[in-house]
Amino acid sequence: MTTRRNALLLFSKPPIAGLVKTRLTVLKDGVFQPDVASGLYHCMLFDVAEICCDALAELEARGATEEGVIDEYELVISTTPQKNVEVMQRIFDESGTWPRDIRIICDEGSSFDEHYNHAFEQTFDMGFDTILSMGADMPALPRSVVVEGFDKLHALCDTPGGGIVISPDQEMGVSIIGWTKDTAMSHDGVFYNKDGKTVLPAYIDKAAELGLPALYLPAVVDVDTMGDLFHNITLVQAIEYCAKFDDLSVPWRTAQALRDIGYSEVRVPPNDLHDPREEIDTA
Q1: CA-CA distance, 254 to 47, in Å (whole number)?
Q2: How does residue 276 score in pLDDT terms, banded at 50, 70 and 90?
């Protein structure tokens, strides 16, 4: 038997008013006060962490592979600056008992790319064989996508030179990105690209230039803008109902928070921006 160590790397700031989800607030072009937006993000963070724990438990329940590989999984949260490690630890400690231990690290750098690189480097230096990374602002994250992400990473472990797995978001970016320890990949030049290239094609172009295989995961939507939030409200509502008939992990904290602030339903004004229907509809 051999052991393969897998890290689910969750990037998150502590849910502090005025520092998270400001695009949902009156500080930018949103409608919420900063404390409401940070409270909503607090619920998303815990829901995503719980969905990830559920997915890792499902993966661990499989036992050894046919090749005699035992997979171990750990949930790692990367935050910044260093003082926020203690803040994040306290937030989780005060919330009660979690189904698994959560390791919290600090990422450093002068750009988003450098912060991401530093977190990956630290995690691989801890002896992990694969990393699947994501943000914590995805309350509609399907547990199945996390499971599929690690399944595809494991397939790449047998590929010389490794490879990446990638899940798009709804805005030409990515929601999930990961690779194996033998993959010669970095996040350099991906985020806030000076040439205007968005994150999804930036990763794909880097993989192509390096000759690396890339495995596609279903898209997962995140929450940055009010439009994103409206989309996620409909998803969360659907997941809550569908979970009565299917084995789904429900983002129940986010669902309740949306109800508490009166945003549990989305209505849109009528519009006529559709194809002509004169020859289709009948009286």
Answers
A1: 7
A2: confident
DSSP 172-184: SSEEEEEEETT--
Phi-psi region of 189 (alpha: psi -120 to 50; beta: other; left: phi over 0): left
Q: Using one digit for the tens of pLDDT, what is the confidence trace for 7-64?
A: 999 999 999 999 999 999 999 999 999 999 999 999 999 999 999 999 999 999 999 9
User: Measured on CA atoms in the order 182, 183, 188, 190, is the torsion positive or negative?
Assistant: negative
Contact residues for 128 (Cβ-Cβ < 8 A; gap 6+): 5, 6, 7, 74, 181
Measured over the CA atoms of residue 217, residue 223, residue 224 and residue 225, the dihedral's sign is: positive
Order of strands across the sheet with 102-106?
A: 102-106, 69-79, 2-11, 130-135, 174-180, 164-168, 214-216
Token reading at 164 = 């990446």
* Burial bucket for residue 179 (CB in 10 Å: 0-12, 13-18, 19+): buried
| C-alpha–C-alpha distance, residues 204 and 197, integer Å | 11
70 token code pair: 């035992």
Question: Residue 279: is its pLDDT beyond 80?
Answer: yes
Beta bridge partners of residue 214, listed in sequence order: 164
